[in-house]
Amino acid sequence: MGNNQALKENKLLFEGSEKKVEICIDDQSDNLRARGDDYWRLIVSQSEAEIISKISNQQLDAYLLSESSLFVWKDRFTMITCGSTSLADAIVYFLKDQPTDKISSLIFQRKNEYFAHMQPSSFPQDAKKIHQQVHGKAFRFGDIDRHYNFLFHLDRPFSPPTNDTTSELLMYNIQGELAEMLREKNNTSENIREALEIETILPGFHIDDFAFKPFGYSLNAIKDQLYYTIHITPQMESSYVSFETNVDLASSNSNVLLQLVEKFSPGSFDIVSFNDHSAKNIPPSYHCSSKSKSDLSCGYSVSFYYYTKNKKHWLKPYQFSL
Amino acid sequence: MGNNQALKENKLLFEGSEKKVEICIDDQSDNLRARGDDYWRLIVSQSEAEIISKISNQQLDAYLLSESSLFVWKDRFTMITCGSTSLADAIVYFLKDQPTDKISSLIFQRKNEYFAHMQPSSFPQDAKKIHQQVHGKAFRFGDIDRHYNFLFHLDRPFSPPTNDTTSELLMYNIQGELAEMLREKNNTSENIREALEIETILPGFHIDDFAFKPFGYSLNAIKDQLYYTIHITPQMESSYVSFETNVDLASSNSNVLLQLVEKFSPGSFDIVSFNDHSAKNIPPSYHCSSKSKSDLSCGYSVSFYYYTKNKKHWLKPYQFSL
């Protein structure tokens, strides 16, 4: 998706896997939404991304970015960026003119990357940069020799509201009919949205989406204080699809994760959840390759699961063009 | 192991996973061994590594390097380097004053890395650099979302001698008693060699080994035209052990791979083999996560296997120091 430094090396390589931050403030006199589009455009630009479009409702603003998404509520924001963006720089910029004693929660994450060598920084470097502004702790969920998820959190006690859950589904190496269609050039957002059948999975959301050229797709969806977002990097050499939501999948009895795994048929996928206790219904063709969890001192119970598709057949080597 | 650029960022992080090249020449008037130590010191220095020591026999010279190993026969050499070395530069340097029509085989490999962001180049960049000197083909064995092995080979028909086999065992995330002992600082090469009990596995080799400070170990072993080599990066944050040999494991009926897997108890390991048709006796606690093979046009049948340990328990997240 988007124009990006990473594209310079090879047009077929794009780092879909994301960096993400969620910051909550505890200040009745402040309203993050009231800071306005220009303020958020400035924050987004610090990470080398751009705002493409915006939808809003009574509760939140949802910005679609050239590299992923930004959601802003009165008292919190969630920013997700992919490619070779520098989200840590945007966080440091935000923190610099923000009374840090009013920050009740800050969680920064990075997934393992396909092309770590194209990144402007490593997770330990990012974590140290943020730590210089606000004292925190840093973790890796998952084994170092498999998939993993890095997490930095503000080291301050926090009691998230009971409905404050997040579920992330990160799918790698997508296969099958939908993947093939997404790899075709110049799809429209309409035909991608239709192929995703997302309306049947999570109904009633207001949707803003964008089809990138030659391929790639991003979608933001909002309903009251709820959001979900989908980002698709379909190219064979680095395919990746992420889904993320603050819908409580346990109490809504949603099977969305299972439905998406069946649609995209990934070679492997990770689930990262925050205070989400929904049952994980995983197709039997997948194998849990590692799982890690912890009740963090910042008030969230975090789980990480890494699933791989069982493979019995011999894989033909992939040939590079030179 | 060794002093290395990568150590600058964090003393605990060291990229053990290797780059490797094997070049065969077909020129009765040439003798690679006769080029002498100063010549090979120059070649090694092009990759930012250094020669530490040397052993020889009638058939070959085996150099232990600050980052891995170099073996030189009359008509071929194998060079393996780890850390953030630039092996492709050494290859280009070798090729520049070498009649390229006398090169009968060139195979360059890179493993997937723990810390790709610390590398001076990516595999596609390396492959393109070598391709500018000698026309070749480039492949990835293994799925992009799991472990994999990159391979570039000279695009020229070659008939390897029937006894020309190579087996590589690459172990990640080592655990257990031996791993704990290796993580202790200031082990001697004598006590590491004893703990490895290597003499009972492949007997009768002449051994040259080195224990790095504070930890890390390298071993070269030779017997007639045969070699094996072991490189150990024990530190918890990036543990890695490689074993490689040109001993024909099928005809020697050796169980060395199985014995090493049992000793190091890795979280995952890869086996890469060239014209090796030995049976793979893998402990049942491991799961074949992917396998790939191909009969390459350069005359070698190459197989890649990626095994992961079955994990039923929850993993505690790893906490970074900030």
Please tell me about this protein's structure.
The structure is a homodimer of 322-residue chains. The first copy, chain A, is α+β, with helices and mostly antiparallel strands and 322 residues long. Helix content of chain A is 20%, strand content 36%. The first copy, chain A, has eight helices and 17 strands. Chain A has helices at residues 5-9, 36-46, 87-96, 123-131, 176-183, 189-196, 198-201, 256-264, and strands at residues 19-25, 51-56, 61-65, 68-72, 76-81, 103-111, 136-141, 149-154, 166-174, 206-211, 217-223, 226-233, 240-245, 266-274, 286-295, 301-309, 318-320. In chain A, the strands form two sheets. In chain A, strands 2-3-4-5-1-6-8-7 form an eight-stranded antiparallel β-sheet, with helices on one face. The first copy, chain A, has an eight-stranded antiparallel β-sheet with strand order 10-11-12-13-9-14-16-15. In chain A, a hairpin with a 2-residue loop joins β3 and β4 (68-72). In chain A, α3 (87-96) packs parallel to α4 (123-131). The longest helix of chain A has 11 residues, at 36-46. The relative contact order of chain A is 0.16. Mean pLDDT of chain A is 91; it is low at 1-10. Chains A and B meet through α4, β7, β14, β15 and β16 of A and α4, β7, β15, β16 and β17 of B.
